[in-house]
Amino acid sequence: MHIAAVILSVLLALAMLHSATTKFTRPEWLRRFAEAVHLTTTQLTVLGSLQIAAAVGLVCGIGFPPLAIAAAFGLVLYFAGAIGVHLRSGDRNLLGATLFLVSSAATSVVLVLDATA
């Protein structure tokens, strides 16, 4: 189980770093997307910073599992919130947030199972 926990943590961390990079570089498609859900550039910066913090927590948590578990659970909350923001703003483009939510939840479960084994 430990290998699965490490692989999922690293893959999720890489996905968060990629997502954070787009929030900092703000390509045109992301600016349109952010406008659709009423996010400011300051909010994008904060969200990207949270994703970087989670990525660091996931990777550092390989050596200290409670940190990885906290980071993964934090991402579950982050993406549950993202889905809420999309729904509240009337935007039905939920695929990305849903995939990240499922990935974060799966990683959380595997990390907890690994820590209790």
Automatic annotation (TrEMBL):
<keyword id="KW-0812">Transmembrane</keyword>
<feature type="transmembrane region" description="Helical">
    <location>
        <begin position="93"/>
        <end position="113"/>
    </location>
</feature>
<protein>
    <submittedName>
        <fullName>DoxX family protein</fullName>
    </submittedName>
</protein>
<feature type="transmembrane region" description="Helical">
    <location>
        <begin position="52"/>
        <end position="81"/>
    </location>
</feature>
<dbReference type="InterPro" id="IPR032808">
    <property type="entry name" value="DoxX"/>
</dbReference>
<dbReference type="GO" id="GO:0016020">
    <property type="term" value="C:membrane"/>
</dbReference>
<dbReference type="Pfam" id="PF13564">
    <property type="entry name" value="DoxX_2"/>
</dbReference>
<keyword id="KW-1133">Transmembrane helix</keyword>
<keyword id="KW-0472">Membrane</keyword>
